[in-house]
Amino acid sequence: ETGVTQSPTHLIKTRGQQVTLRCSSQSGHNTVSWYQQALGQGPQFIFQYYREEENGRGNFPPRFSGLQFPNYSSELNVNALELDDSALYLCASSLPGGQGNYGYTFGSGTRLTVV
Amino acid sequence: AQSVTQLGSHVSVSEGALVLLRCNYSSSVPPYLFWYVQYPNQGLQLLLKYTSAATLVKGINGFEAEFKKSETSFHLTKPSAHMSDAAEYFCAVRGDDKIIFGKGTRLHILP
Questions:
Q1: Nearest CA in chain A to B47
Q2: B positions 69-108 inside 8 Å of A (CB)
Q3: A35-56 residue pLDDT tens
């Protein structure tokens, strides 16, 4: 089975710019969740996609948006970047509710730096 | 609402000594609980998970955790620490189709 892959691994953007991060889910998983992990903190839930629709959202502003495609891969888009958006962005794929032996499988993340 | 609290942001143990990382949970429903490990500059790797089956859960790399409902705890243990265990460890609980993480405990292994 292939795991979760995220691209790019590192990214530097300027404040005010827009960024798109990508995630390919593990084979057999149809649900994708995105998390933001600031330095020294635990991951914080941004949102989840199931059947190409947003299916739950954390406490993040609307400039954080996403997409899920028919092959279950996903994108995270962030508009009007702020310095505080600098973080490791993690993607996790799963079956609905984290069912099955693997639960939630995480990718290695994208390290975003906003300058 | 579900939540987890990890006691101790940093824990240091000697190589070969017992590892004990503490986690307490709060949940209004029977919880699904997880322990994840994060090595520097990497993503999260699942160590083990509790899904209301056996209360003693065995995971990878010699780690195990015991679910204690009376104490609302899910502490992570390993009998003998190895240098390669140095990492950040996160306790987490499933809630409303998302995972809620604790703030993490950094484990240091002393030679």
A1: A102
A2: 90, 94, 96-104
A3: 999 998 999 999 999 989 998 9
